[in-house]
Amino acid sequence: MKKILLLVAIISCGAHFAAAQTQKIAFVNTQLIIDTLPGKDTAEMKLAQIAQQYDEAIKGLQMEIQSKQKEYETKVKSGASQAQLELLQKSYERLVQEYQETEQIGNREIQAQRGNLLKPIVDEIKKAVGEVAAKKGYSSVIDNATGMVIWTANTNDDITDAVIKYMLKIK
Fold first, then answer.
1. How does DSSP classify residue 140?
2. Measured between alpha carbons, how far is 109 from 55 in angstroms, rounded to an integer?
3. Residue 7 dihedral angles phi and psi, to the nearest 5°
4. Minimal CA–CA distance to 140: which of 157, 162, 161?
5. CA dist., res. 84 & res. 93, Å (int)
6. Engineered SS bond to 139: which of 23, 82, 85, 103, CB 3.0-4.6 Å?
7. Residue 97: enclosing H or E segment and its boundaries?
8. Is-above-0.70 flag for pTM?
9. Which tens digit of pLDDT belongs to each residue from 43-69?
């Protein structure tokens, strides 16, 4: 009898410990939150200005490249020397390389600036998610911005709307 009581006590303690260890997990779509916040528009305008500057530089290089192509074709038709054609070819290749480098540098700068401009917003979101999750009793939150929560038994575990409301209320 003592063994049975001891076994029952161990099982009930184990069940109580397992219940205490159960974690409540929520999910949130940070991209939807970012898209909802007014600070995103300011960041997007700054990024558009940077992108426009690079676009103008790239368009200028495209025009120069086209001009070099036409000049080369004209020189070929007029019977220019091989040395003149090689100089034009090298000039053309430098322009193409400059075009590619400008495009790459522009893309890197835009990505870096996007990170810099959105970091304060993302930090605010993290703080708000933590506060909303804690109030609702969640121990972990998964970011669903990429759509990776494939299935959930409880749609109430999506706290995106609650975070948006919380953040808009504190502004």
1. E
2. 13
3. -65, -45
4. 157
5. 14
6. 23
7. helix 82-136
8. no
9. 899 999 999 999 999 999 999 999 999
